[in-house]
């Protein structure tokens, strides 16, 4: 995203009815704490920015529970856990890092948690939560040390982009399959669902509507798409004879505590199956680290908050916030928690301080009162939003020179093997090992970071243990 220009900022001021001068005139405690005047912003602008960011990312309240409930977890409790994790992370980001970054459970990680770790590998969701919390602890240690810079430098861009693109493609496939748009076929293994099936037509309509809203930059495009398709589902008959969308028990209700998922971690299972979990620990760690790094760079750049030397203000606090939230999230009952790139919409609306993040947290708190509505959202309504999320995760491919086989082969193998085997570890393993083999064949083995060689050993050990080769 491009940085905002002065005219754009003036336009935002006009829209919000505030100016940096007028809002920053009284040097009150709020102004001093968040440095509002120093960053050329005001309370009204920050609140508007927070509302804009919330509209862009509110879909997570519907999507995260819809995905993770497939692991056997209570969907209503997951709605509460999702919102509470977002509140905790966003408040911490606002008060400690003072950056306009909203925090919530991460897309991609929730899919891996549910469909790879729990459904495919057979790990109980309690053990999977313990694994996520453990990666949060490791990430926190890295965040408070200089090791994070080394990790950012040593992991090749080819592997990072390949894993991210593979997860994006897997999200698209799982979303379409869950909505019935993709079905099993004896002759071709997979096929498109019948267009005679009304839920398939509803999904198709969403697949056309959602990218149009996003391309037109409609504020809150994904949550609008989910809302429209959910409402349409009241009129569309499903396979069981009932409508696709069920009537909610109430429109609003007192917030529900996630009793079934709170402190449900099984730490013993994690350590008794540590070798099996190790490759996934690496995935979650990398997903957390590089997602946060990319979001920090993008959002602070758009907000013109970077220092003259290019460094990010309060970067350690931002990394530590993500790490701490990724420890608290599993305690509540959700997967990895991370800073959201959607925060850039709030920056474009004028957000410059942590007051934007606090506004997002307050709106997530308000959403807790409407949990009965989020519970009845059907997969046909969330699938198009997930497809768009998957597409956005594949944009990193544009940065890679795909004419170079050392880049292309690992990325393509990671992506295709992940989707075709429905297993991220298979894709990561083959992509990493092919990268090592190609670099060695090109007589560049000495340039391969020790971390990558170590990762290759981990994948080989994982294959031996899981396949019981010896």
Termini separation: 51 Å
In total, the number of domains comes to: 2
- What structural class results from the helix and strand content? mainly alpha
Helix content: 55-70%
Q: Strand fraction band?
A: under 5%
Instruction: Tell me how many strands there are.
Output: 4
The low-confidence runs, each spanning 5 or more residues with pLDDT under 50, are 1-27
Could you report the average pLDDT, rounded to the nearest whole number?
A: 83
Number of helices: 22
Q: Can you walk through the features of this model?
A:
It contains 22 helices and 4 strands. The chain has helices at 6-16, 20-24, 29-34, 43-57, 60-68, 75-97, 109-118, 125-143, 147-154, 157-178, 198-215, 221-233, 267-272, 274-302, 315-332, 343-348, 354-367, 371-375, 379-393, 405-421, 424-441, 450-467; strands at residues 103-105, 182-185, 189-192, 337-339. Strands 1-4 form a two-stranded antiparallel ribbon. The protein has a two-stranded antiparallel sheet with strand order 2-3. A hairpin with a 3-residue loop joins strand 2 and strand 3.
């Amino acid at each position: 995203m491009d940085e905002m220009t002065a005219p754009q900022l003036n336009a935002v001021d006009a829209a919000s009815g505030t100016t940096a001068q007028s809002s920053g005139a009284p040097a009150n405690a709020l102004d001093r704490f968040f440095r509002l005047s120093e960053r050329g912003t005001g309370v009204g602008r920050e609140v508007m920015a927070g509302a804009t960011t919330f509209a862009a990312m509110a879909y997570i309240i519907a999507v995260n529970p819809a995905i993770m409930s497939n692991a056997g977890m209570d969907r209503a409790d997951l709605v509460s856990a999702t919102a509470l994790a977002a509140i905790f992370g966003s408040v911490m980001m606002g008060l400690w890092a003072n950056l306009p970054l909203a925090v919530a459970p991460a897309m991609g990680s929730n899919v891996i948690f549910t469909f790879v770790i729990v459904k495919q590998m057979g790990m109980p969701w309690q053990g999977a939560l313990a694994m996520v919390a453990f990666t949060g602890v490791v990430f926190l240690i890295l965040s408070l040390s200089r090791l994070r810079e080394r990790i950012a430098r040593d992991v090749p861009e080819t592997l990072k982009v390949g894993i991210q693109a593979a997860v994006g493609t897997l999200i698209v496939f799982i979303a379409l399959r869950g909505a019935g748009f993709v079905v099993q076929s004896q002759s071709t293994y997979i096929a498109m669902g019948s267009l005679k099936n009304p839920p398939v037509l509803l999904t198709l309509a969403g697949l056309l509507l959602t990218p149009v809203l996003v391309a037109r930059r409609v504020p809150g495009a994904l949550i609008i798409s989910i809302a429209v398709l959910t409402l349409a589902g009241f009129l569309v008959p499903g396979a069981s004879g009932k409508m696709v969308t069920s009537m909610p028990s109430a429109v609003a209700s007192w917030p529900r505590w996630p009793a079934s998922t709170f402190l449900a971690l099984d730490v013993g299972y994690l350590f008794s199956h540590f070798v099996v979990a190790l490759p996934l620990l690496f995935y979650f760690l990398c997903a957390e680290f590089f997602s946060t790094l990319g979001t920090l760079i993008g959002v602070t750049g758009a907000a013109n908050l970077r220092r003259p030397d290019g460094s990010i203000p309060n970067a350690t606090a931002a990394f530590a916030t993500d790490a701490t939230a990724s420890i608290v999230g599993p305690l509540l009952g959700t997967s990895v928690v991370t800073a959201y790139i959607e925060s850039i919409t709030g920056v474009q609306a004028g957000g410059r301080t942590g007051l934007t993040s606090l506004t997002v947290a307050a709106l997530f708190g308000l959403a807790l009162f409407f949990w009965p509505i989020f519970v009845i959202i059907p997969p046909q309504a969330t699938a198009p939003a997930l497809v768009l999320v998957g597409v956005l995760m594949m944009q990193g491919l544009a940065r890679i020179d795909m004419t170079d086989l050392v880049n292309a082969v690992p990325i393509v193998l990671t992506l295709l093997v992940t989707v075709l085997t429905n297993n991220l570890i298979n894709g990561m393993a083959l992509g990493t090992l092919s990268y090592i083999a190609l670099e060695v064949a090109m007589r560049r083995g000495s340039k391969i970071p020790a971390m990558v060689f170590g990762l290759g050993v981990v994948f080989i050990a994982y294959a031996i243990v899981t396949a019981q080769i010896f």
